[in-house]
Amino acid sequence: MAYNALSQELQRAAIAATRLSALSNTFRLSLRSFASSTPVRNMSTASEGVGKPIEFYTASTPNGRKVSIFLEELKAAYGLQYHPRRIALSKNEQKEDWFIKINPNGRIPAIVDNSNGGFKVFESAAILLYLASRYDNQRMFSFEPGSLDESEALQWIFFTHGGIGPMQGQANHFIDAQEKIPYAIERYVNETKRLYSVLEIRLNGREFLAGPGKGTYSIADINAFPWVNRHMNVTGTLDAWPSVKAWVERIREREQVQAGLQVPAPQ
Predict the structure, then answer these.
(1) Cα–Cα distances in angstroms (integers) from residue 229 to residues 75, 83, 235, in the given order
(2) Helix (H), strand (E), coil (C) string for the chain
(3) Phi and psi (nearest 5°) for 19?
(4) For residue range 214-251, what is the model confidence (pLDDT) as tens digits?
(5) Which residues on adjacent β-strands are paired with residue 56?
(6) Rounded CA gap, 29 and 163, in Å?
(7) Mind listing the pLDDT tens digit for each residue in 28-38?
(8) What is the mean pLDDT of residues 132-154?
(9) pLDDT (0 to 100) of residue 51
(10) What's phi and psi for 48, nearest 5 deg?
(11) How far is CA 4 from the centre of its chain?
């Protein structure tokens, strides 16, 4: 009888030990779940978002304004911080050795992303694409990688980068040059007007260059707008391209665009 009582007590003790072990495991899992709960993740995200600002080397040119506008858009949408640094083009500061280490081509704009190991990016369209891929997580200004909308946006980005920018830039150069060369002025002014006509075809019945329906405001528009916004020296007005004129006015109304047009600050 004493043996049977002792055996029963040992069985009850074993069952109690098993239950205690199970409760201990459950408690540890609860602690682990608590440690990875939303408030902790939010704290981590907030600390990661602080980061070091992007160093932005620029001047008051259309190519510089592309990047400053997009940085202002990302700042308003995501809190992205950047530090603008004016490059004195009149003093050829962009050709100095320290800047050549950032951009071997010796041109503005350029950025150094200190939150990504000091990664350097030059060429205005390349900077827009880099910033969109790294910081536009919700695709507010870009499109899903590999989508037809992205392909459409890239087409208009390259159209501007290889057409409007270079042609309008040459038109401005020869118009402003002390030595007037009528053939050069006529050639580049007419080509700029032709490219504006291409934009007119695209924007007829649309609000923006890329995206479904009437389009979505994106880096395709940001890439082209600063050049067309500086049309006065070449075409005087945009009256010949009413859809382009409406597009420029529509984009210019954005608060972030107005802020970006003031970067770098006037001297």
Answers:
(1) 22, 24, 11
(2) CHHHHHHHHHHHHHHHHHHHHHHHHHHHHHHHHHHCCHHHHHHHHHHHHHCCCEEEEECCCHHHHHHHHHHHHHHHHHCCCEEEEECCHHHCHHHCHHHHCCCCCCCCCEEEEHHHCCEEEECHHHHHHHHHHHHCCCCCCCCCCCCHHHHHHHHHHHHHHHHHHHHHHHHHHHHHCCCCCHHHHHHHHHHHHHHHHHHHHHHCCCCCCCCCCCCCCCHHHHHHHHHHHCCHHHHCCCCCCHHHHHHHHHHHCCHHHHHHCCCCCCC
(3) -65, -40
(4) 999 999 999 999 999 999 999 999 999 999 999 999 99
(5) 84, 111
(6) 60
(7) 333 333 333 32
(8) 98
(9) 57
(10) -70, -30
(11) 79
Report how far residue 267's alpha carbon sits from residue 128's, in angstroms, rounded to the nearest whole number.
26
Token pair in block for residue 43? 């704290």
Which amino acid is it at 23? L
CB hemisphere CA count around 97 (13 angstroms): 0
Report the relative pairing of strands 82-86 and 119-122 from DSSP bridges: unpaired
Residues near 95 by beta carbon (within 8 Å), at least 6 away in sequence? 106
